[in-house]
Amino acid sequence: MSRRNRYADRSSIGRSDVAAYYHGEPGGDRHARRLNGAIDFQEVLREWCLRNGFTLKIRNDGHHWILQGVFLAEWWPSSAKLVFNKRWDRGVHCHDVEQLATIVSKRLESQRQGGH
Fold first, then answer.
1. SS3 assignment, position 14
2. Count of helices and strands (H, E) across the chain
3. Which residue of 49, 68, 86, 98 has the fewest C-beta atoms within 10 A of its own C-beta?
4. Do 78 and 35 meet the contact criterion of CB atoms below 8 Å apart?
5. What confidence tens digit (pLDDT) does each residue in 23-38 have?
6. pLDDT at residue 3 greater than cutoff 70
7. Kind and range of the H or E run holding 76
8. What percentage of the chain's residues is helix, strand, coil (to nearest 5)?
9. How far apart are CA 11 and CA 40, in angstroms?
10. Which secondary-structure segment (H or E) carries 59?
11. 8 A C-beta contact, residue 76 and residue 64
12. Among 35, 72, 38, CA closest to 55
């Protein structure tokens, strides 16, 4: 575990075109920008969820997003933390709604094909 008893992400989905990293930007500003960007695209994700058999709950003023369907996906946009089925030790660094839909789609396809 890293500082403040949090689990470090095991992997990253990669750089984001939507919520790009800006060298020298303070972390708090970056986190606020990620959160606001996610909130701007929440309806896009809601539509994706409807098409793919998930429900979407957004809690804590947009800080915690919960996708429930064949599996559970929880995402914290400001910190870019994504966790499947409460496996905190297998977190994925995911910066934006587009990346979230992509990685959840891949996991969903894997589940349909009998994977984990």
1. coil
2. 3, 6
3. 86
4. yes
5. 898 989 999 999 998 9
6. no
7. strand 72-76
8. 45, 20, 35
9. 25
10. strand 55-59
11. yes
12. 72
